[in-house]
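User: Let's play a game. I give you a shape written as tokens, and you guess the letters that built it. Ready? Here's round one.
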């Protein structure tokens, strides 16, 4: 997995390219170059990999803020959910340890997971990586980055309209009907009455 600075929006299990969800990338190898198949050593041809997705911060609503590896008997913490499973029908995801994530609204998240790496159990990664736990002979690590999303700014108020709204002449027709033409009566010519010519 290449270094990523964008927050992750999804983490899931997959059997390979044929079952991998659209927009996701498979973590096919460890940092040492070994296979990242979580089913290796089970004497079967099936495969199980982690896959992830990340999107530009301007188009996302939720990001992954926490990743946990729980034992089979541990209760799922509030706000967390088990990761999705996009696998072949013959593949069973191990339940002895289960991965779960916490999704948070991007507008309220200070930091988010941007990278997940896999190593052999004996490998140690320094900062800024944090070890999540071990599963199927592999160690899981995550890296976080600050969430820098632009919050919407309030629209500036129109000062002119505000002053106009405070006018004391709001009741005047000339103020309220500025755009309404006022009809003007056509002047009629003065016609002298015949009686007025003879007293």
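Assistant: Ready! My guess for every position:
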């Amino acid at each position: 997995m290449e270094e990523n600075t964008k927050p992750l929006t999804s983490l899931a299990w997959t059997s390979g390219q044929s079952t991998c969800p659209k927009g996701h990338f498979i973590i096919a190898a460890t940092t040492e170059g070994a296979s990242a198949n979580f089913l290796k050593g089970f004497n079967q041809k099936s495969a199980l990999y982690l896959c992830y997705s990340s999107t530009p911060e301007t188009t996302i609503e939720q990001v992954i803020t926490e990743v946990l590896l729980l034992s089979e008997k541990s209760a799922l913490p509030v706000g967390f959910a088990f990761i999705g499973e996009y696998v072949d029908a013959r593949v069973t995801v191990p339940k002895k340890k289960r991965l779960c994530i916490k999704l948070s609204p991007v507008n309220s998240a200070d930091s988010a997971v941007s990278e997940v790496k896999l190593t052999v159990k004996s490998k140690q990664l320094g900062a800024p990586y944090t070890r999540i736990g071990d599963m199927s002979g592999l160690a899981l690590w995550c890296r976080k980055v600050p969430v820098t999303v632009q919050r919407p700014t309030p629209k500036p108020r129109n000062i002119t309209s505000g002053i106009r709204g405070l006018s004391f002449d709001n009741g005047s027709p000339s103020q309220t009907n500025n755009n309404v033409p006022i009809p003007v009566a056509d002047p009629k010519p003065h016609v002298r009455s015949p009686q007025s010519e003879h007293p």
